[in-house]
Amino acid sequence: MYVVEPVLNRFYRKKMRSVLTFDTGSFSIPPCKAGAPGDYLLYVHIPFCETLCPYCSFHRYVYDEGQANAYFATLWQELQMYKDIGYDFTGMYIGGGTPTINMNHLLQTLEKARSTFSLREISLETNPNYLIPETLNTLKEAGVNRLSVGVQTFDDALLQEIGRFEKYGSGREIQDKLRSAIGAFDTLNVDLIFNIPLQTPESFRCDLDVIGDLLPEQVTFYPLMASPNVEATLRERLGAMDFRKEKQMYGMLLDRMRDNYTGSTAWCFSRKTSMIDEYIIAYDHYVGAGSGAFGYFNDAIYINTFSLDEYIEKIRRREFPVTRVKKFTHQETLYYFFLMKLFGLSMNKNDFIQKFGVSCRKALRLEMLLLKLAGALRENDTTLELTDRGRYYWVMAMREFFIAVDTMRDHCRMLADTRDGSDGTEG
Ligand SMILES: C[S@@+](CC[C@H](N)C(=O)[O-])C[C@H]1O[C@@H](n2cnc3c(N)ncnc32)[C@H](O)[C@@H]1O
Ligand code: SF4
Prior knowledge:
four-stranded antiparallel beta sheet; binds S-adenosylmethionine; binds iron/sulfur cluster
């Protein structure tokens, strides 16, 4: 049966777009609230990659060493500016782009961050070509606890289609590299994507077989998320998206992952209690540093400029490089909390009451009623939990949330390209 899903797809697309409308202007960052410094995660964005994958709507440029030198020097100043107004962080997540693209700069950033902030956990994204013993040892010594590797698929034909075979190797080579890295960190996470056009259920089943054989500590299965720009590119190169296939593949992965994993989020599965991929649910607040980074704190989303030139200029003037802000209303704040907590599969109802002074049943009356009727939620006195059906609905909601974020990224990138006179080599 595929009846409720098309309606929900439309509902979530509209809702996420309307929630994620941003203000423009010049913005300042408020000093850290008293007593709160340790509550924040620091997200750091490194916007460089060797080549640009066609499905990706993250903020990234083709690597250029001169640009990277200036970027890392500026990034450090931005972190220092947060320190100066009272922020401290217990967790750091370095994402991209490809953060390991310049190891010297990365190691210096890690060293400075560890001596400046009260970091207890560091998570880092990379690509399979960096899984070599020397790099793995260096990263471990530099304090990285969780390494997240973008694999996407082990299917050679599909790797060719998405432009990753040449650069990152065949499915077999990637498996061998992963095998050598499993156990080297507290958590080795493998990112896979499902519902890529041209990806068949059989091909996806083989990916699940490989995971069953490798058993990495953690696997994150992203549904393909296509902002309008990415969708147009993919349609031309690989064909149209099919959400029925998304549902089918999600059912396949839920069935298979149950044997050896527990769910950390609706799309992330862990073999033990490990650092989870979705920092947006592990921490209620996160600060975003670097060009194109998003932060969420003070009930607002802050987006840094996508223009590398503007980023460097602003920091040179000791201004925070924020280009867009979305201040949430009270209702939006509590909806965001509800969405993120249940993305982590369960929510303590008393936590909600404590935070917002009202029960979730009262605050989100219609939403709760519809989700209960659709069989998405299970509850007892203290806890609200997603059922298997609910998990898929949350995948849909979060897919639309991130597509709305990606659409905003596309827009900011267009403005940045116009400003910098870029030839569009950025994706
Ligand atoms: C932005 S990348 C950064 C790390 C690294 N460069 C890589 O390719 O893995 C992190 C992960 O985002 C996921 N991703 C990127 N674009 C996506 C898209 N359009 N839809 C779903 N997942 C996507 C991929 O699984 C990727 O591994
Ligand atoms: S998915 Fe590809 S383009 Fe996107 S960040 Fe990773 S390597 Fe770069």
